[in-house]
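Q: How do we represent a protein-ligand complex in a form that can be generated token by token?
A: Start from the inputs.
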Amino acid sequence: CKVLVSGANGYIAIWVVRTLLEKGYSVRGTIRSEEKAAHLRQLFSSYGDKHEVIVVEDITKEGAFDEAVQGVDAIEHTASPFHMNADDPNELIIPAVNGTVGILKSALKYGQSVKRVVVTSSGAAILRDTPTPSTFSELDWNEQCLEVVREKGREAPNMMKYRASKTLAEKAAWEFWNTHKANVGWDLTVLNPPFVFGPAINAATAPSGLGTSSNMFYNYVAHPNSNGATNEFLASVGTAWIDVRDLAEAHAISLEKEAAGGERMIVSAGLWKWQDFIDAANTISPPPKLTTGGLPKGNPGAGTGHPSTVHLLHYDTAKAARILGLKYRTIAETTKDTLADYEAKGW
Ligand code: NDP
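Then emit the structure tokens for the protein with NDP bound:
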């Protein structure tokens, strides 16, 4: 069974590749340029020809994935920009939407052997900012970010631009599927993870190369002064999260469960504030040796569980529990493994 993983060098996708290989799948990963292949080839060298990489230079180009989809049994589409420095919202929206529709179009034309396509969407396509605590489920769509980006364009907050790219890409995927489902031999599954944290096996040689979410973790959980964040910030900022290894497992299980076809699923381990990860970091024994000069303390106990702590965003995760039956890592496990990863890298 061969799986195509787009954006295979990314923080999440490289764990998807590893998980699939460990489960016995063959994997073909797409990358944007040949120099990104070396790390993947080296990391997965023991898998021989069960692991291949293919260059797809520009995912926004018509037919970009035509060659890549040929002969695979399933597709995991994770390639999409995730950063907070787009000026024009289209810098995010065009690759997100065209990349998603493009890979589905290629699967329609050349994916005769494809049985399932899994698209990595996000909680960003579901949630909206609310003044009072709210619970979101797969029935919810983030229309708020679309309105904000429509009204404000370049002046919209960067987080809203990113959310709009994910919302529009996922909407486009479902629209494509609904239009063509009678003519294809595959079905569509969408995963909606919240913030993704955990150890990195991508080619990052410095924390800045980790990827947006794991770089934030490094900045707030591994620095003695949390990069200048106030104790109030550390105790109040945070939403929902999942360990990157559990998300990779979700991608693999999504290929195996018949009932995952036609579903979008929120995969979330629970709620967090930065203070929760900081408290977990400070219980590790012996303490990790970091070149940052020690761990932050913040205000111990002021995060989740403190009577004055409020979480505005809650997810209903019943559907993923029912269909995928994932077991999620805890804040303590993820923090320990992530700090050990930084220590091993000499950061
Ligand atoms: P990374 O930035 O580590 O990986 C993104 C991948 O997408 C890379 O392979 C990157 O290639 C590729 N990519 C980005 N922009 C383009 C583009 N314009 N054209 C072609 N390829 C592109 O991010 P993550 O691993 O964190 O994210 C992977 C997916 O998961 C994304 O779809 C993201 O939206 C989603 N997600 C992430 C969350 C998180 O907290 N990390 C939470 C929820 C969803 P290159 O390296 O060449 O730039």
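The mean pLDDT is 97. Residues 7, 9-13, 32, 59, 78-82, 95, 120, 122, 166, 193, 195-196, 211, 213 surround NDP (CB under 6 Å).
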